[in-house]
Amino acid sequence: MLLFTYLVVILDSVLTVADGSTTCTNPRIRRSWNVLSKEEKLQYTAAVKCLFETRAQGTAYFPAAQTRFDDFASLHINQTSPRDAKNITGNGGFTGPGIHLNSVFLPWHRYFMWIYENTLRDECGYKAAHPYWDWSVDTSEYGSSLPKSQLFDSVYGFGGGGKAKAPRENLGSTPGHKVSVLNCVDDGPFAGLNITFGPGPNLDQPTPRCLNRGFNVSLFDASAQWQKNAVPLLQETDYFTFTHKMSYPLTGAPFGVHGAGHFGVGGEMINLWSSANDPMFFMHHAQVDHMWSMWQGMSEANAKAFNGPISPNGTGLSTLDSPLYMTPFLAPDLPVKAVMDTENKDGSGILCYKYEDNPAEKIPAYEGPENARI
Ligand SMILES: [Cu+2]
């Protein structure tokens, strides 16, 4: 059964070898948005727009879904609040322990990104690997700030933070972190597009509304710097502590780097459930995955490390066989071990990509006692 599910997800750069396992011969190279050419940037946003213009495939599970993009947003919402939804038939109605603040946070989002990247390529003509958002260069550390980011360019980016509408609370946002700004994105390739699900856990009713953001520049600046925020994180030696500190504040910072991207962009992005309604979600999570990949690359132990509670409440023991739940119309459920190595070097996994560190932006050397690489 496992073999079958692996074969289903084999894609162009993954070859089947004689024993039925797969090997990665030509990994896709995920690059920083800032080093893409204008043409490459337009190709990416056009492919994402294509997902908004293509019909949903998951209506048997989430009848309110309108677009192919909604298929991803709905899956993220449902896996954030696992429930025996009446329309969920996969997994016998059981949808798992959640995907945030627990051990599977990183592998689940890694697999989710892989499916999204494949869908852009297979259904929307995108040719390259998924880009990532190197947030650190959009901070004062590099003499910049969030609104100056290349990501928010109105032509060669994702549009900006929108113009202020009547402030209101983003209902259903992450508990304890409500913000009062919610602006419609009014420039760039996604201006005028509707999102469907949310806010928050809502999956039952379509709630068409604008894609919305609400920049929080100072919070972002204090939480997304390389030396101050990313480097200490990469020094962690325990997998779950590393995972946890991505979302929780480090000493002296409002948020971990994962929180920085979500709360910096604001609007839909601060929503634990419906953040995947903003295409920026995938740019941010590519960099979150990049951080995990960097951390894995620092030692053999890190490469194989996986531990922590299966439940966000701190209970349950997770293993490399713990399942990553998707829904059947998007991709098969797979065990954590299938996505531990982005280059699938031992042939037991499914992935085939790696990250190019941003050559245009010097990563400051870390003068610590260990881990000279960073
Ligand atoms: Cu998430």
UniProtKB/TrEMBL annotation:
<keyword id="KW-0479">Metal-binding</keyword>
<protein>
    <submittedName>
        <fullName>Di-copper centre-containing protein</fullName>
    </submittedName>
</protein>
<feature type="domain" description="Tyrosinase copper-binding">
    <location>
        <begin position="100"/>
        <end position="117"/>
    </location>
</feature>
<dbReference type="Pfam" id="PF00264">
    <property type="entry name" value="Tyrosinase"/>
</dbReference>
<dbReference type="GO" id="GO:0016491">
    <property type="term" value="F:oxidoreductase activity"/>
</dbReference>
<dbReference type="InterPro" id="IPR050316">
    <property type="entry name" value="Tyrosinase/Hemocyanin"/>
</dbReference>
<feature type="signal peptide">
    <location>
        <begin position="1"/>
        <end position="20"/>
    </location>
</feature>
<keyword id="KW-0732">Signal</keyword>
<dbReference type="GO" id="GO:0046872">
    <property type="term" value="F:metal ion binding"/>
</dbReference>
<keyword id="KW-0186">Copper</keyword>
<dbReference type="InterPro" id="IPR002227">
    <property type="entry name" value="Tyrosinase_Cu-bd"/>
</dbReference>
<feature type="domain" description="Tyrosinase copper-binding">
    <location>
        <begin position="278"/>
        <end position="289"/>
    </location>
</feature>
<dbReference type="InterPro" id="IPR008922">
    <property type="entry name" value="Di-copper_centre_dom_sf"/>
</dbReference>
